[in-house]
């Protein structure tokens, strides 16, 4: 068989490779494992988000020229968000498989697919780290992309970000209950913003310095020294790298986590900050996947990742495109509150 005919065979089709890369095991990060984000696939490049009585919902598509979606007469507004496109270009050259191919045998496909599978694993990890970074951004209310551009959810939805809370962690008074009162105020503030929307609690992802000052605060230690959990504070936290956090504990009806996400020198959470959000509020965080920019995927429901092979001129090798079209956002950004340690 010709050297690169295998790349035109079914195992190397867009459908086959896309299915394969979406089956690759990856570590989505701590936020991904929490299951905070409801995932939706759409067949468009933008999503229309309707706000009605302060609640943001996706608008269902309707036939062109036909009737639209029927709604009540409550005050509502419509906004469009573009689904951003992310792509990695790679290649497998003919020389890379020259010494390992078994010409004229069925093992040829398996051998070259092994090369492609290795590339899939590498790129899947990169996209997982990117998705986690954007989801942390959605929790902050401002999604920052690698090129420095931002999706400011407060501006997009026309709401003002709540005033940053100073938790005053350098206050050494262990008996005044000031810190616990601040926690209670956060809980009430979120409940007021949600206006009756149910939620089960409040969670905070914290930078290193914030978390260290929090667990060292006299009021926190005075509380836990009287409980069985005191041993956790005394001995510190041991993490095996799989949890995505250096430590987690509950205080003041808030679950505090020392978030550990970073890529290189880029930390996902500022060391002096924390970001608080309600848990189990219906539809609060959303992920929307759009279709790839290929003929095969036009007007089809989006997937998390796509992979496409393109045979190079003169059969020198195969170019590989791996892409994702994903939007991460919060439907009620006003409920997202930022805190600082001092």
Characterize the structure shown.
- The structure is a single chain.
- The relative contact order is 0.23.
- The protein has helices spanning about 15-25, 30-35, 95-100, 105-140, 155, 180-195, 210-215, 220-225, 230-235, and strands at about 35-40, 45-50, 55-60, 75-80, 85-95, 140-145, 150, 165, 200-205, 245-250, 255-260, 260-265, 265, 275-280, 285-290, 305-310, 315-330, 335-340.
- The N and C termini lie far apart (about 70 Å).
- Mean pLDDT is about 80; it is low at about 235-240.
- The protein contains 9 helices and 18 strands.
- It has a 6-stranded mixed sheet. Strands 1, 5, 15, 16 and 17 form a 5-stranded mixed sheet that branches.
- Helix content is about 30%, strand content about 30%.
- The radius of gyration is 24 Å and the shape is globular.
- The chain has about 350 residues and is α+β, with helices and mostly antiparallel strands.
Low-confidence stretches: 234-242
Percent in helix? 25-40%
What is the terminal separation in angstroms?
Answer: 69 Å
Mean pLDDT score, rounded?
81
Number of distinct beta strands: 18
Instruction: Tell me what portion of residues adopts beta-strand conformation.
Output: 25-35%
Gross geometry:
globular
In DSSP terms (H or I, runs of 4 or more residues), the helix count works out at 9
What class do helices, strands and sheet pairing give? Answer: alpha+beta
What characterizes the major β-sheet? 6 strands, mixed
Please provide the ordered H/E string of secondary-structure elements. HHEEEEEHHEEHEHEHHHEEEEEEEEE
Radius of gyration: 24 Å
- Strand arrangement in the largest pleated sheet: 8-18-14-9-11-10
């Amino acid at each position: 068989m010709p050297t690169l005919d295998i790349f035109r065979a079914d195992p190397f089709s867009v459908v086959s490779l896309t299915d394969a890369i979406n089956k690759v095991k990856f570590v989505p990060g701590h936020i991904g494992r929490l299951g905070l984000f409801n995932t939706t696939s759409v067949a468009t490049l933008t999503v229309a988000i309707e706000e009605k009585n302060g609640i943001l919902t996706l608008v269902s598509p309707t036939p062109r020229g036909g009737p639209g979606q029927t709604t009540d007469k409550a005050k509502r507004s419509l906004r469009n968000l573009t689904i951003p496109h992310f792509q990695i270009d790679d290649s497998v050259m003919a020389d890379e498989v020259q010494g390992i191919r078994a010409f004229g045998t069925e093992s040829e496909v398996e051998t070259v697919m092994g090369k492609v599978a290795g590339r899939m694993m590498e790129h899947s990890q990169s996209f997982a780290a990117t998705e986690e970074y954007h989801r942390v951004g959605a929790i902050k209310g401002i999604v920052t992309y690698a090129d420095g551009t931002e999706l400011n959810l407060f501006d997009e939805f026309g709401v003002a970000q709540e005033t940053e809370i100073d938790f005053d962690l350098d206050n050494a008074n262990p008996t005044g209950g000031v810190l616990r009162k601040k926690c209670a105020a956060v809980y009430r503030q979120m409940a007021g913003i949600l206006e009756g929307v149910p939620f089960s609690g409040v969670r905070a992802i914290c930078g290193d310095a914030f978390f260290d000052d929090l667990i060292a605060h006299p009021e926190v230690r005075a509380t836990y020294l009287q409980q069985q959990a005191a041993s956790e504070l005394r001995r510190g936290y041991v993490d095996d790298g799989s949890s995505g956090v250096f430590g987690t504990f509950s205080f003041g009806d808030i679950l505090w986590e020392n978030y550990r996400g970073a890529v290189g020198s880029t930390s996902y959470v500022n060391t002096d900050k924390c970001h608080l959000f309600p848990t189990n509020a219906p539809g609060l965080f959303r992920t929307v996947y759009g279709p790839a920019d290929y003929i095969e995927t036009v007007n089809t429901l989006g997937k998390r990742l796509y992979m496409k092979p393109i045979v190079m001129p003169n059969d020198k090798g195969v170019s590989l495109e791996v892409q994702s079209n994903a939007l991460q956002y919060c439907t009620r950004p006003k409920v997202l509150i930022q805190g600082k340690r001092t």
